[in-house]
Amino acid sequence: MLPCKRPSVFLIWAALLTSLTACASSPVAKNLEQSLAADPKLQTDGVVFEESQANQPQAQQNQSAIQLPADFPKDIPLYSNAKLQEVTPASGSENKISTRWLSSDPSNFIASFYRSQLQTNNWQILQQPTDDAGGAFEARRNNLLLKVSIQPKSVTNATPNQPQTATELLIDYVPNSAATAQPTPNTNPNETTNAVPQPGNPQFIGPITPPNLAAQPQNTANNQTTPTATAESQVFNDLNKIPQEWRQHIQDLAALGVLSIEPKATKSNSTTTTNQFEPGKIVTHREYARWLIAANNAVYANNPAKQIRLASESTQPAFSDVSAKDPDFPAIQGLAEAGLIPSPLSGDSTVVLFRPDAPLTREQLLLWKLPLDTRQALPSANLDAVKQTWGFQDAARIDPKALRAVLADYQNSEQSNIRRVFGYTTLFQPKKAVTRAEAATALWYFGSQGEGVSATEALKLKRN
Predict the structure, then answer these.
(1) How do the domains of the chain map onto residue ranges?
(2) pLDDT, tens digit, for every residue of 188-200?
(3) 106, 145, 107: which is closest to 123 by C-alpha?
(4) In this predicted model, what pLDDT tens digit does every residue of 18-61 receive, in sequence order?
(5) Cα–Cα dist 312/86, whole Å
(6) Which DSSP string corresponds to 211-244?
(7) What DSSP designation does 309 have?
């Protein structure tokens, strides 16, 4: 029975195909054909989809094609892994142009980049962050004012492979034509780069030739060759916001050629010269190292045995971040070789970085200077001894290495650096950054136990 059924099935299928072929033009056949055919909209929609996909990125690209102004100064360093987000043109009387950037790199990377670039390219750093977490740089170069604000920014939609934080950069600048209303000298920057550092230049070390201080004024400009002329060229006019007694201290050091701050305006055809010390600005490691040697050598100009020798470029660097080509290498390396600052040379193998552009803290100010006050090994000290003598509420925050300097400073009575600079206080705030005025006040006097020399006394000896 089964073999008989198979031919019948084939006959049924054949009849069905024959009928469809024969009736291809019938409505039923057409409906069947249309139901089995591909949807024509798919092809049309496919074209529309492709066009929309092609046009959408182009639209987004046009929307995000933000460009820097055509006259954006080439001197301003730009972080390579940062994308420009917004440009705000100058408006009002400030004439400040603002740009906003976004980077996926952490803020400490970017802060380190700008600290290095501004220093390497001879910017005058007016302000810088106290740490690498964020903050703002303010700098000047050739009358171009620059402010770089670095702020960490949270990323809420970060992917697993993407850092959880980003960094926002705000770069504000005032063009050269509006940066300052003061007259500027018509000089060639290339000429000053290769010139011998003068008093008032950040690279000037101070009186480093003790046998003959009379030769020092030869470094002054405009054919001024007397010590008095050197002093007059560094009379600061912005000291009105600091204590009265500090003003004379700073002027004494300036007259000795110690404070190498580049003036905002130098002598030109005008009859007035304006020098800005900026006493409220934070002093950096490199500045304090330079001033420390210059002040010590000026105060003890007639005593070569108490002077600090500057290092030569052929010396092996003690710190990996201060090469022999660094303009402040002779001073920094000289302090390290004299054992006045912690370094691998003094047995501190963990101190391999000097961080020349980092802010100087209060405890560092004492740790570096006290050996030059006592001229002997610092006494052993512990936390209890510092608490009993000074009574600081925050004594526990002082670095153990600095405890000896803090205790030794107490023994200097009213001439102690802490009392002269910070006055009466029950809080030492050891990690607080030191201002230029505070650093200069500390360097005005060297000595202990009532026996010492001030910059005023050294200036009198120099003029006699």
Answers:
(1) 82-178, 199-360
(2) 444 433 444 444 4
(3) 145
(4) 554 554 455 555 554 555 555 554 444 444 444 444 444 444 44
(5) 48
(6) T-GGGGGGG-STT--SHHHHHHTT-BS--TTS-H
(7) P
Mean pLDDT computed over every residue of the chain = 75
Q: What is the DSSP string of 90-107?
A: --TTT--EEEEEEESS-H
pTM across the whole model: 0.52
- Can you give the C-alpha Rg of the chain in angstroms? 36
Please report which confidence band the pLDDT of residue 288 belongs to, taking 50, 70 and 90 as the band edges: very high
Edge-to-edge strand list for the sheet holding 144-154: 82-88, 97-103, 165-174, 144-154, 135-141, 124-127
- The residue ranking higher by pLDDT, 2 or 353, is 353
Structure-token pair, residue 206: 């101070």
Tell me, what's the pLDDT at 120? 73
Helices (H), 147-305: 189-193, 227-232, 244-255, 285-299
Type of residue found at 125? I
Determine the Cα–Cα distance for residues 434 and 431; give it in Å rounded to an integer. 9
Residue whose tokens read 């002329």: 229
Question: By 3-state DSSP, what share of the chain in percent is helix, strand and coil, each rounded to 5?
Answer: 40, 15, 45
In this structure, the strands spanning 451-454 and 445-448 are antiparallel
d(CA 138, CA 373): 34
According to the model, what pLDDT value does residue 65 have? 73
Give residue 287's identity as a one-letter amino acid code. E
**Which CATH code for domain 82-178?**
3.30.310.80
Written as six digits, the tokens of 388 are 């009993």
Q: Is the pLDDT of residue 406 over 90?
A: yes
The residue type of 447 is: G
pLDDT of 127 over the 90 cut:
no
Question: Residue 245's pLDDT is what?
Answer: 83
Q: DSSP labels for 331-377? A: HHHHHHHTT-S-SGGGT-TT-----TTSBPBHHHHHHHHHHHHH-SP
Q: Which structure tokens are listed for 21?
A: 């072929």
Report the alpha-carbon distance of residue 85 to residue 64 in Å, rounded.
Answer: 8
* Single-letter amino acid, residue 414: E
